[in-house]
Amino acid sequence: MAQRISVFPLERALLFPRAYLPLHIFEPRYRALVTDALARDRRIGMIQPRGPGAKPALFDVGCLGRIADVEALEDGRFNIVLEGITRFRVTRELDVTTAFRQVEAETGEWADAEMPDALAAVVRASVEHSARRFAEARGFAIDWSAVGRLDDETFVNAIAQVAPFDVAAKQALLEAPTLAERAELTMQLLEFFGQAGGGEEDDTTLQ
């Protein structure tokens, strides 16, 4: 069933079901977005833009989130935390008068994939090995004992959210149908960006 979703286009900012994304909201149009969401159902769709500009085209797939925590600052800015609900596929962008963009979207195609099974032990170990190599090559300080206590979904999605991959790579991770496929793609990207030395610093929690 199609639904109307108010969206927040933001490069390299991924949200996954059951994951959390902190955001600092300072642009007037996104202050209006948060204010509107708080007055209605607290829901915002995170989606990546396909390029720069005032109104760039959007990728087809994003993730619907619920405002789980909010801090309203005196100057009108917000600090919020979004909790992922489900991915969605845009069917069309709506013609609206609001400062923020809205789309019509479907969520049904991920009904089964949004409840992932645990990874095979060898796959989990392989992802951790790739993540360690990537972090060491970049000089990142990681508490690996804490990482080891994360469940498979949280672990894989956390890498997808924070790793300095490019926009296309981030989108591919979001669109991976299952957790196992996302884990495999994560390993490939860690190896590729680790060897190439590419990627970008992740500052996507600010907008």
Automatic annotation (TrEMBL):
Domain Lon N-terminal per the UniProt entry, residue ranges: 5-194
Spans through the membrane: none
Domain of life of the organism encoding this protein: Bacteria
InterPro entries, A to Z: Lon_prtase_N, Lon_prtase_N_sf, PUA-like_sf
Protein name (database record): Lon N-terminal domain-containing protein
Source organism (scientific name): Sphingomonas jatrophae
